[in-house]
Every structure is written in structure tokens, then in C-alpha cells.
Write a structure and sequence with these properties.
By secondary structure, this protein is of the alpha/beta class. The protein has a single domain, classed as 3-Layer(aba) Sandwich (Rossmann fold). Helices cover 38% and strands 18% of the residues. It is built from ten helices and nine strands. It has a nine-stranded mixed beta sheet, sandwiched between helices. Helix 3 (113-131) packs across helix 4. The chain is globular and about 60 Å long.
Length: 289
């Protein structure tokens, strides 16, 4: 369905009203010549990191799922701008998107992955409040994450199968608890980061159940899942994606694993050929099929 200019003005006016109330000059709305819109730094909470960018193409149907994008950065770093390449690609292919910032994990501030999952939920609620103005269905999301963001996407998606229709995990960690993980080199050098993310001391000889709760491989539900994994990823061991793939296969959950040879972590940044010929086409196909 092609939306009219009147519908666009209606959405823009509503958002401008909220922006004026917030008195935040960082909020921006851009409207293209063809009627597409880009809404930057819309607040979905009170924390300075609780902001999101909404891109609405000029043409889409009401049942088109909205892709929510979750950046990486070891849970403690990163920002939504790191995912703009994917957001622009999906916008060009008529996919509505929400690209979120979220609170960074911090031992001092007691922010863990659970608070980050709350941020995903809040961002979804904020978009739902605008969905009717955008002529889109509420609670109709594809969740796409990269690295630590992929871990959050998997956890949140598997925990909310009622409104997350599909998950896309790009180089996402899946397991912080199993014997195989504890015996891996990754568990040694990632220990400080994982402790902060979970909010619990990592005792290797008696690992807490909280690390099991934080592992997507132990929370799998019926949500169709697309996995990207490089065989030479030194930040996320390739066995993590392979193990999740086995669980999804055993549970007969629709999924696809794209396992790339001679490939490291987040390859879209470093390999244009793989990004343009493998990664982006597979993302688009998974969303649209």
C-alpha cells in the first residue's frame, strides 16, 4: 500500500508534538521527496541512551514486519550509528526499521543484560504507540542484532515469541554455561566482560545458574532464526552458532545457519564481497519470506 502525503503529515505532526514536549533539540525528522521519513533520536525512556531512529519507506503494506536493530559493542560500548549501513539498506528495500541505542552494561550502575532487554521492550512499546499513525501493525517485529546485540536479540526474541516474528543473529554469542564453553579459550579472556553483562562473579569451578539464564541456547522457543557465523571468529567461537543450530534442528524450529569460511567477527565491516553478495541478500530474503 502506498501511503498518501496526508498520512505522512499526520505522523510527522504527532511526532513533532512529542518532540516539543520533550524540549530535546537533538530530535530530527526528515521527509524525502517521495514521502519516506527518517525520525532521529526519538526518546523511548528517560535515560540518555534510550533513544531510537525510525525509518519509514515511502511504500509498504500494513502487515510488513518492522525490523528492530540492536547494535553490538561487548554490552558495554557501541551505538546505533554502527548499524546505519543495514538500516539504510533495509530502507532502500521498503522495510520499516527501528534502530535503537540502549543502556550500557555497568557494574557500578548495576546495569546488566536484563536492563538491556527491558530497553528492547520499551523501544517496542514506543513504536507500538505510533504504529497506527504509520499504518503498521503493532507487535510485528523482526529482531536483528550484531555481536552482543545479537545475543540480546536471541534472548529477547526467544522470550517473546508472541510479538517477535523472526530473529537475525550476526556473530552472536549463544552459550556462557556449558562444559564446552567453560573449556574454551573464549571463556578465559571474555570473563571480565561476561561478569559485567550478567552481574555475577564468574566462578569457573561452580558456575552460577545465572550464566545459564543468560545463554540463548537454553531459552530457545519457536521463533524462526537466521544465524551468521565466521569460522575464524576470535571473539565468538564458531562452535556457539553450531551448537545453537543443532538445538534449533532438534526442536524442528525453522532456521538457517550461514557459516562463512575464512571469516572473522562481524565480517560486513571488513569484507565488501561477503557483505554485498552473502550477508545483506540473506537478511533481506529472511525478512521478506
Amino acid at each position: 500500500m502506498k501511503k498518501s502525503a496526508l498520512q505522512y503529515r499526520f505522523l510527522t505532526a504527532g511526532l513533532l508534538g512529542m518532540f516539543l514536549i520533550s524540549c530535546n533539540t537533538k530530535h530530527r525528522i526528515w521527509v524525502g521527496e517521495k514521502g519516506d521519513q527518517k525520525i532521529f533520536n526519538l526518546k523511548y525512556g528517560d535515560h540518555k541512551k534510550q533513544v531510537m531512529d525510525i525509518f519509514l519507506p515511502a511504500t509498504y503494506t500494513p502487515d510488513t514486519p518492522v525490523t528492530m536493530i540492536v547494535h553490538g559493542g561487548a554490552w558495554k560500548y557501541g551505538r546505533k550509528q554502527h548499524m546505519i549501513m543495514i538500516q539504510k539498506f533495509l530502507h532502500q528495500n521498503n522495510i520499516p526499521t527501528v534502530n535503537i541505542d540502549y543502556r550500557h552494561a555497568s557494574k557500578r550502575k548495576k546495569i546488566t543484560y536484563k536492563e538491556q532487554l527491558q530497553d528492547i521492550a520499551l523501544a517496542g512499546e514506543k513504536f507500538n504507540s505510533l504504529a497506527s499513525k504509520a499504518k503498521l501493525l503493532p507487535n510485528n517485529f523482526v529482531l536483528l542484532g550484531e555481536s552482543a546485540g545479537a545475543h540480546l536479540a536471541l534472548l529477547y526474541g526467544y522470550s517473546n515469541p508472541d510479538h517477535i516474528k523472526k530473529i537475525i543473529s550476526m556473530s552472536g554469542p549463544t552459550d556462557f554455561y556449558s562444559k564446552a564453553y567453560l573449556q574454551s579459550a573464549h571463556s578465559w579472556y571474555s570473563k571480565p566482560t561476561i561478569q559485567t553483562m550478567v552481574g555475577e562473579k564468574y566462578e569457573r569451578t561452580a558456575v552460577s545458574e545465572k550464566f545459564k539464564e543468560a545463554s540463548p541456547i537454553n531459552r530457545v522457543s519457536s521463533v524462526p532464526t537466521l544465524l551468521f557465523q565466521g569460522d575464524s571468529d576470535y571473539l565468538v567461537n564458531s562452535k556457539q552458532a553450531l551448537s545453537l543450530d543443532s538445538v534449533l534442528t532438534e526442536k524442528q524450529i525453522p532456521h538457517r545457519l550461514i557459516f562463512m569460511k575464512d571469516t572473522g567477527h562481524t565480517p560486513r565491516f571488513f569484507n565488501k564481497y561477503k557483505r554485498d553478495s552473502i550477508i545483506l541478500p540473506a537478511i533481506l530474503d529472511w525478512i521478506k519470506k
